[in-house]
Design a protein that fits this description.
The protein has 112 residues and is mostly helical. 68% of the residues lie in helices and 0% in strands. The chain is globular, with a radius of gyration of 19 Å. The protein starts with a helix and ends in a 21-residue tail after the last helix.
């Protein structure tokens, strides 16, 4: 989305939206997978919470962008999405899975 905003040409817009689609296509399944594995929650509870948070995002982001576009212009309003991407990037270390072994090597023992 940032590419589309910073380079408002047809190629810039196509590349920007392609990158946004690729980011969403990889981010959503990774977040759902890790949400389902949250310690202290039964399987499905974390996934349910993430699903509801995504629904809230789909519900509230269009009015937010509309409000910002009316007051600051569409280009500035659409900056919400690259900013959200930076927030996701800052929070991404929590998506790393925990090591299956307690020794910290990350290697699984062979089963015989």
């Amino acid at each position: 989305m940032g590419l589309a905003l910073f380079f408002p040409t047809v190629p810039g817009t196509l590349l920007g939206f392609a990158a946004a689609g690729f980011g969403s296509a990889t981010l959503v399944p990774a977040v759902m997978d890790q949400a389902d594995k949250l310690p202290g929650l039964s399987p499905g509870t974390g996934l349910s919470i993430v699903s509801w948070l995504m629904r809230l995002g789909f519900l509230f982001s269009p009015p937010l962008v509309g409000y910002l576009a009316e007051n600051f212009g569409l280009r500035m309003a659409l900056m919400v999405f690259p900013i959200a991407g930076l927030v996701v990037l800052a929070c991404s270390p929590v998506l790393r899975g925990k090591s299956p072994r307690s020794d910290g090597t990350g290697e699984q023992g062979s089963r015989s």
